[in-house]
Structure prediction request, 269 residues.
Amino acid sequence: MTLPLGGTDLPLGGVTHVMGVINMSPDSRNKHTVADGVDAALRMAGQYREWGATIIDVGGQSSHYENPTIAVEDEIARAIPAVEALVAEGHLVSIDTWKPEVAAAAVGAGAVIVNDTGGLADPQMRRVVADTGVAAVAVYVEGANPHDVGAVEIRQDKAERTAAGFARLLDELSGEGIENVILDPGIALNYRGNYQAYTRMQLEVIMDSGHLKKLGRPLLIPIPRKQQLHRVTAYIALALEHEADIIRVHDVEVACDLVELFGRSAPLP
Prediction:
């Protein structure tokens, strides 16, 4: 299997690609991934590539529900200049957004993935993806978007239930001509509710991710960001053990080193 991204086909099977996060939003709580402008984003992405990252995920809107929802125009102004510059430098760029207008602008600027934290539920977002033929990440979210969430539902069969939801979604998307879909169980999103129970369930979803892989689509495991780096490392190692196709990370150097240690590195495109 391969993952078509514009003119590049990423190999799948036996490898794990690292998607490194660059936040163009000053509201982000992950300060070490915040770029204060295009030049900073280029430097950060260059370092990511040296470490071994395959994909750069650019976002202009913080997804934490406690942060403000900014206007579409402001998100475009933050993110699109960085997307254009990164594409010009040869990076494979993903746009992290739930807003169709932002996704359309990013694809027009050369982004090859729409990382939809709205779960590909918005008909307008589906039209953007279908009309452009771009790859899309369907993020499982319990709400209309990451700013419209309550308490996460804690259950032991979360991965299986998530897979069932994705199966229904994939049928809908196929009917609209959308086939190049990457699945993300959404375990890095922030929710209200019992944080410790959610932390344990995040691990359980990774361990049960075989339910998701049975759907035959590339599996992206988003690594939850924790204050303790050893916990982040544990999530990365677990995702590699369970053969994630892509891991989305804020701690790129650590992730790339572990990918190499697990023998799951792929040649950079």
